[in-house]
Amino acid sequence: MAINKSRPKKPSKLSVYLYIPNIIGYVRVLMNVYAFAICFTNKQLFCILYFISFVCDGIDGWAARKFNQVSTFGAVLDMITDRISTACLLVILSQVYRPGLTFVSLLALDIGSHWLQMYSTFLLGKASHKDVKDSTSWLFRAYYGNRMFMAYCCVACEVLYISLYLLAEKPTEHLMDVLLSLTKEISPFSILVGLSLFGWAIKQVVNVIQMKTAADICVLHDINKKESP
């Protein structure tokens, strides 16, 4: 007797939009919008909202795996929210510190490296931009292959930017003057900034490696396309 195997019901478009991790993503967007609206009038509340949004970045990933609600839309929403929120904070820092070009350059590196990485992932037909097991760079593999290491670098980066935001007392602060002032006395805050600087530096190196690796993949794709009949 044949067993009638029914296929699992295909989720509707609305149900994917209403996945729990995606709802968390929408809340993150709203928190960031409000946070940046008050960033010059209420620094403390801005930092609280910004950091809660950042923490939710880890929660939505956990929720996606826990409730089997992993989606391409959710992954893209997550990355866009991360990149835009960090970009907005870097723009603010470029206005309160001199030279502002430092933060604009960091913004360009962050956006450029991640965009190239996503596009190269598409060219290779991989499911995730974090699949870098075939990379020749041990640091690149360690960054995406170890969740704790990647989390430390990402948290360190955000903590450093928020700390600099809180330290800015006037709109023309010189970045090096502020950093050097922290070395004059040892305090829990200066130690926190020091630990953040280390993780931040690793993340910038990874961004450079990521950009170069992804650019090479794009170039090789062009070469192979020209060689094919």
Task: Looking at this protein, list some descriptive labels.
EC 2.7.8.11, metal ion binding, 229 residues, transferase, CDP_ALCOHOL_P_TRANSF_CS, 2% strand, CDP-OH_PTrfase_TM_dom, mainly alpha, 9 helices
Characterise this structure.
With 229 residues, the chain is an all-alpha fold. It is built from 9 helices and 2 strands. Strands 1-2 form a two-stranded parallel ribbon. The chain is globular.
Number of strand segments: 2
The outline comes out as globular
- Uncertain stretches: none
**Helix-strand string:** HHHHEHHHEHH
Number of helices: 9
- What does the radius of gyration come to? 21 Å
Task: Tell me the structural class.
Answer: mainly alpha
> What is the strand arrangement across the widest sheet?
1-2
Strand content: under 5%
In helices, the fraction of residues equals: over 70%
Mean pLDDT: 90
Largest sheet: 2 strands, parallel
Oligomer: single chain
Q: Roughly how many Å apart are the termini?
A: 52 Å
Produce a short descriptive summary.
It is found in: Membrane. This protein has 229 residues and is an all-alpha fold.
Topology:
Blueprint lengths: L12 H5 L2 H18 L5 H24 L5 H25 E2 L2 H24 L13 H8 L1 H21 L5 E2 H9 L4 H40 L2
Helix pairs in contact: 2-3, 2-4, 3-7, 4-5, 4-7, 5-9, 6-7, 7-9
